[in-house]
Amino acid sequence: MSHEYPGDAPYLIADQHDAALWLTLNRPEQRNPLSSHMIAALTSAIDAANDDPSVRVIVIQGSGPVFSAGHDLREMRPRQGENRADFEARVRSILQACARMMTGIVHSPKAIIASVSATATAAGCQLVSACDLALASDQATFCTPGVNIGSFCTTPLVGIGRNMHRKHAMELALTGDMFSAEEACRFGLVNRVVPAEELEHATRELVDKIASKSAQGIRAGKEAYYRQIEMPLEQAFRFAEGEMLKAMTSRDSDEGISAFLEKRAPQWGEA
């Protein structure tokens, strides 16, 4: 199944293969910016996948030589004749839409993987950080270059700073330097680095492994993880105990235990 979003030249290409929905940012000539159109396309595609039981895993990747260069800087400049209040309102609207899209990835009941073959900068780095997992080509690079143009990557650091130690996040932000995939892995932004020619295969292997698990278990477990990680320790344990109780008394848990004891493949329920 294939869908295109929106317009004559699609901003986003969505292809479903078995239980995986592959979303490809499709503005390679412009370095796949997270423009207002791209943000809307990603939001729409993820929202639709959330309600589709045939989708168990979502993969986000970029076409061309750049994963994503972040916000479209042409949208972040005043338009001719635009007063300051209208300019600020328009930029604020873009930033809010981007934040909704990023939090939508975190709150999605599906496992979402970033497959990064090339450069990810600024909000493109933030997109990687929002995903549950990230695989990177050994040719991929990462940076938050806002400081180089007299700004600062403040909103990208919301996600990036939740993936990394603070000093690693600030090193990216304060220097504006380009970091290698290996450094990004050491910092905690990506899970694993593989040779460029093996990235698609490694991503598919990870997709297949996750898609074979209980969709109900992943839905509940992902939500519980992201909620408890922001809580104080004692509160997190109390919350997790309740979630674990629900998980262990669910239909899929009973099926999983039975399948393990009977040495057979489990038959999971619907997503």
Beta-strand content bin = 15-25%
What share of residues is helical? 40-55%
CATH class membership of the largest domain? Alpha Beta
Number of strands: 11
Please outline the major beta sheet. 7 strands, mixed
What's the shape? Answer: globular
Strand order of the largest sheet: 1-2-3-4-6-8-11
Element string (H = helix, E = strand): EEEHEEHEEHEEHHEHEHHHH
- CATH fold-level label of the largest domain: 2-enoyl-CoA Hydratase, Chain A, domain 1
Unreliable stretches covering 5 or more consecutive residues: 1-7
Secondary-structure arrangement, i.e. CATH architecture of the largest domain: Alpha-Beta Complex
Total number of distinct structural domains = 2
Count of runs of 4 or more consecutive helical residues: 10
Mean pLDDT: 92
**Radius of gyration of CA atoms, rounded to a whole number:** 20 Å
What would you give as the CATH superfamily of the largest domain? 2-enoyl-CoA Hydratase, Chain A, domain 1
Q: What structural category do the secondary elements indicate?
A: alpha/beta
Give the termini separation: 19 Å
